[in-house]
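<context>
A single protein, sequence plus fold
<entry> Chain with its tokenised backbone below
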Amino acid sequence: MGKVASKKRSNALTQANIAPVERLNIFKMNTGLGQHMLKNPLVAQGIVDKAEIKAADVVLEVGPGTGNLTVKILEKARKVIAVEMDPRMAAEVTKRVQGKPEQKKLEVILGDVIKADLPYFDVCISNTPYQISSPLVFKLLNLPRPPRVSVLMFQREFAMRLVARPGDPLYCRLSVNVQMWATVTHVMKVGKNNFRPPPQVESSVVRIEPKDPRPPVDFEEWDGLLRICFVRKNRTISAGFKSTAVTDILEKNYRAYCSQNDIMMDDPVEIGQLIDRVLEETGMSDKRAGKCDEADFLKLLYAFHQMGIHFA
């Protein structure tokens, strides 16, 4: 009798463990929404461990899928807010904790995380759909109270752009922009076979920690300068300012700045000469954006502002 009971318990445990996997086969994954479910529990545990979740933390999970990461986060956090686009997945992650103590700790929001008004949270964890990689990073960094830490899975190339340094082949506007506002570290590589269905490319996990205090720089001004400098990152920075479209915008901004501050200006405004003067005085004219660091771009932005030239 004892052996029969033991066998029944073993079968029940096995069924509980494989249930999420079986349910994945009930419906087709919507790869158009970037649905690639993380199936390796060791990788899921590694992601949660790197987040260093505290017992009092509220954690935002983006794209919980069937809940393989969710259940591990619930073991550590006070509450998990899971934002899911697919109603089927929202139902699955809800079922995963139904009737369990963890049910009270889980809130599922059905919708687009980029458009949603998010409540406060301490930590963000995400197996990120590739379509929202960049919008998600900047939404998190631009929140009035950004999360203490975000541990996010991305396609490998995007992740490596986030951590790239000047001179690296993948160094780009994204690299400078994110590193201005946060410290970014590469946590682990994740092979495509750790997902169901396997994606076409490899993945990586990064850890993003916003700088505190936040740098006293206007994001739109900073991004506006970088957009010009990185139009062709391997050409000289001065080349990016030769475009008529660029000079027209900067002249318009310059006129508006002078008008608002009661500053007399020449008519016609020789905006090209003012730009060349800033580039020469800062020594940035012949430099290439792909080789410049954060300090170089800050120096350039400050010099343009001193001249009355703005980018937003």
User: Anything to note?
Assistant: The longest helix spans residues 2-24. The two ends are 78 Å apart (CA to CA). Residues 1-26 have pLDDT under 50 and may be disordered. The first strand starts at residue 37 and ends at 38.
